[in-house]
Design brief:
The chain is built from ten helices and 17 strands. With 360 residues, the chain is α/β, with parallel strands linked by helices. It has two domains: 185 residues, Rossmann fold, CATH 3.40.50.450; 141 residues, Rossmann fold. It has a seven-stranded mixed beta sheet with strand order 3-2-1-6-7-14-15, sandwiched between helices. It has a four-stranded parallel beta sheet with strand order 9-10-8-13, with helices on both faces. Helix 1 packs across helix 9 and helix 5 crosses helix 6. The protein binds 6-O-phosphono-beta-D-fructofuranose (F6P).
Amino acid sequence: MRIGVLTGGGDAPGLNPAIAGVVERATKFGIKVIGLKRGWEALCLEDNSRHVVELGPEIIREYARLGGSKLLCSRTNPVAKGRDRTDLVIKNIAKLKLDAIIAMGGEDTLGAAAELSRRGVNVVGIPKTIDRDLAGTEYTLGYDTALNVITTSAERIAHSAESHQTIFFLEVMGRHAGWLALRGGEAAFADIILIPEHPFTVGKLASVLREKLALSSSMGFEQEYKIIVVSEGAHIVGEEEVRKDAKLDEFGHYSLGGVGNYLKGLMEHEFKHTRYSALAYIQRGAPPTHKDRQIGRRFGNNAVDMVKEGDFGCMVAVQRSRLVRVSLEEIKKSPSLVDVSSYYDTENLNVKVVSTINGV
Ligand code: F6P
């Protein structure tokens, strides 16, 4: 038996441990693993000789500890409208004598996997995205590592913010979902957290900031420092998200970025010393945490079992803290967004106190 493995979309810590988990389990059964480089691109080219690499057990220890994806990522959409390459994908799978594909990705890569599965391709999915917004699973690879980077980065920013008595806008990823900002900001004791699920007004942001400053003016300086963690997808009521540029990727998405700077600009006429930093790719670029290594390995192991059992068109997922198999069709359901009424304090633009410790 031969399995092809690919990683699509943005890189995420946990992908390499998952690849290692696939190779580990496959080796046990004498299954050959073929790495397909740059996501679906490897199967969308007539000549993909440079995109194909055999992965033996010698890669396991190295991959297990690395962030990013050694198989490289791309945002290639094999089933893009007007550029459908399903026939070529099927031809390449036959040429490489692959019995199945294990695709690791978020809504786009696995959305394409679901479509290919409907067209007869044997495919199994592994969920990853630092945003943790995929439907059908409580965990996606990369989230925990990114959260840890956000928490420690906010702490570093706070040293500088304190020294200069600055109002600091720290922008983090999270296109549709505010989990990274909410839970990273919570652990970092951020003063304000802005998430895509709760559009706000400039007036509200200014008034919460004013209140926070009034409360903390005990030191007697003109302005104490404040940390505002902002999701890249957070936006003002009635306005669009702030885009990096006007380019669309193959899945029809704009790149977001710059909302922290935009808000800083809106606030600086009233508040002194405002600053902005975007964590951008630094939050994706860390070595995987214990959780991302452990879950990555388990996802990889289980995906091989799914292939062995012919359980195609499914992805390995976490539900109620257990590993389960769900149909790839699940990911078409609404993304996993922050439930504002349960988790977000709209009065204070911050986290709501919750009494659970697992999951969200
Ligand atoms: O993987 C999702 C994500 O992290 C989003 O939060 C972000 O919008 C996107 O990736 C940016 O990735 P890239 O610039 O690589 O397309």
